[in-house]
Each structure stands twice: as C-alpha cells, then as structure tokens.
Design brief:
Structural class: alpha+beta
Radius of gyration: 16 Å
Distance between the termini: 19 Å
Strand order of the largest sheet: 1-2-3-4-5
Helix content: 25-40%
Strand content: 15-25%
Shape: globular
C-alpha cells in the first residue's frame, strides 16, 4: 500500500499488495541486512534524483546497481510474502534481468543519514493506479511506514494528475487496514478480489481501498 512503526499499527508489515498490478513479477526475490556504505555508495546516494520529501523522509530515484540487493532481499522475508500473498522465486541475477513495469519505483530515504529504508511503487501505465510499499526489515517499527505511504500518495496524485489512488490488503491484515484509514483511504468493495492463500490454498479476500484527490 504507510507514521510510526510500532507493534499493533498498520506499519508493521512491509507492504500492501498491488491490487491492480496483480503480481509484482518485475521483481524477484537473502534477507535485507544493513550494510555500511562505502564512500562511493554514499556519493551515489547523494546524487539520486529526489522526487518528493518531508522533514523525515524523501522519495528518491531507484538505482538498480545500488538498490537491487535490498529490494530482492526484502522479497525473501516471510512478512513481505504474506503481505503480498506471493512468494517470488529466482536468483538475484534473474531479478536484475526483469524489466521494472511500474509507473513509479522510488526508494524511501531517511533524511538524517541518507539511509534507504524501503520502496514505494505505482502500478504500470494502462492499469488503475495502485500504490504499494515495502519497508526493509531493520526499519520496521521505527515510524516510517505511514509517513512514507502518505508522502507517496500525495506525490503520485500530483505528479501523475490522478483523480484517485487504489491500494489493497487482505482480510486478515487488520494492521494494514488501520494504516490505510490513517492515510485517508476508504473501502472500495467493488474492487475486492477472491484469491487463494499462496501457502495453504485456502480462500482469502483481498480488500480494495481508494483515496480520492479531493
């Protein structure tokens, strides 16, 4: 689909399912681990294009050479897979070979130290605009999720001249429902999807939500 990541809040999960970009197959999934940046990495980080920012976070250009490892690693996390009802397979090399089919793919940067903490994405052109987010495991529960998602929603509505945005979460995901409500999204039952759980094969409903520009 997320402000403070604390237990019991909507931000605890790394992502909301991309309702209108059914499977993020442009991404393949190695757990994210904090890496001490080299001087070269820090320079690359500072040279990113910044799309939008607030006092806490920035939405910045995704740089494959710099970001692929963390993004790939996040997909290996069980909470990410559960949040998207999807287990992605393939090597890092296969992941890198797949074209990114998104209208927007941006890195969430923590302003105080320029550390990447997650990813936001907007579904491809030609689909209903669906916003999704992932937070890297070390940065959950620290106050970034809802802040980043609200920032991304504002940016996408303005930058792409959208009348509305969509997001989705599963019926068992009370945390994400609370997050979506905090960001101004409301239920859109006409967009609900009936699916099967990626592990159990049991029926599961993905609930659709919408945010109107005005």
């Amino acid at each position: 689909s997320f402000l403070g990541l604390v237990p019991g809040r909507a931000d605890d999960l790394p992502g909301l399912h991309q309702r209108h970009n059914k499977r993020p197959d442009s991404i393949a999934p190695v757990f994210h681990h904090k890496v001490v940046m080299s001087k070269e990495d820090m320079k690359m980080n500072r040279n990113r294009k910044i799309y939008f920012k607030n006092n806490l976070l920035s939405l910045a250009e995704y740089c494959p050479a710099f970001d692929d490892h963390d993004y790939y690693g996040c997909w290996q996390d069980a909470a990410t897979q559960d949040g998207y009802n999807y287990k992605m397979r393939g090597s890092l090399e296969e992941f890198r070979a797949r074209p990114a089919r998104t209208r927007l793919l941006a890195v969430i940067i923590r302003n105080e130290d320029e550390e990447p903490v997650g990813i936001v994405s907007l579904s491809p052109e030609g689909t209903l605009p669906d916003l999704a987010i992932m937070l890297y495991k070390p940065y959950r529960g620290k106050g970034y999720g809802t802040n980043a998602f609200a920032l991304a929603a504002q940016y996408c509505l303005e930058a792409f001249s959208l009348d509305c945005l969509y997001a989705g979460c599963y019926e068992t995901n009370e945390i994400s429902r609370k997050m979506l409500k905090a960001c101004g999204f409301v239920p859109n039952p006409d967009g609900d999807l009936q699916e099967v759980h990626y592990l159990t094969g049991e029926p599961i409903t993905q609930h659709d939500y919408i945010l109107h520009r005005n």
